[in-house]
Write a structure and sequence with these properties.
This protein is of the alpha/beta class. It has 6 helices and 7 strands. Strand 5, helix 3 (about 110-125) and strand 6 (about 130-135) form a beta-alpha-beta unit.
Length: about 210
């Protein structure tokens, strides 16, 4: 990652060769932090979720902390297990970080994924604003990721040595996304594109003012 040679790493250790040409998120183009958040109350804690039932697709849910115009990705769920494993992970992530708003992308196949999570949170007394948005086509997803790439590059991601296994897999999926050719899956970058949309739909990035008292 430090040498911008993720293609060799994928081929040698993961067994999934990727093309160097056409990758949209090179490691040296992204911004990182050491896991310590700014010493102030975040303006918003939110979570987009690209759900899946398991198998080849991953559930991707980055936990986003907004401070003014800066977004820190402190934690995430990135798992291709069945729903009985991934849904509790989403619930725990929301509770652990006190997430205030979540958006689930939905198709006819995944609509009930969010409903079960919402029911679990409601029964536990946790209040959260949860919305749903229809998922675009695969072509539409790729175009959205490409359109939102400049904003995604401004997010702060955990640096090496501070990431969980799932967070590392999330970053590998982000690095491997290509604008040319076919992607095995695009769950991580797609969830980040959703995060950008959540910021835009909420009226843009927050502006922080000094309290007069």
């Amino acid at each position: 990652e430090r040498n911008n040679d993720m293609a060799s790493w994928f081929a040698q250790y993961i067994g999934e060769p990727i093309e160097r040409d056409g990758t949209l998120f090179a490691p040296e183009e992204l911004k990182y932090f050491n896991g310590i958040l700014p010493d102030q109350t975040p303006d918003r804690i939110f979570m987009p979720c690209d759900p899946a039932w398991g198998g080849g697709d991953f559930v991707a849910a980055p936990c986003c902390y907004l401070y003014g115009n800066d977004v820190y990705i402190l934690d995430c769920v990135f798992d291709n297990n069945e729903k009985n494993i991934t849904q509790p992970k989403i619930v725990n992530l929301i509770k652990k970080h006190k997430v205030q708003a979540a958006r689930f992308e939905a198709t006819k196949m995944t609509a009930s994924y969010k409903e079960e999570i919402e029911k679990t949170l409601r029964e536990s007394g946790y209040k959260i604003n949860i919305t749903t948005k229809a998922a675009p086509t695969n072509k539409g997803k790729q175009q959205r990721i490409f359109d939102k790439a400049p904003e995604i590059r401004q997010f702060y991601f955990l640096e090496e040595g501070k990431r969980s296994k799932e967070y590392s897999l999330f970053m590998q999926n982000l690095y491997s996304f290509k604008v040319v050719g076919k992607n095995k899956n695009d769950d991580a970058p797609d969830s980040l594109a959703m995060a950008v949309e959540m910021l835009e739909n909420s009226g843009g990035y927050a502006e922080v003012f000094q309290r007069p008292f």
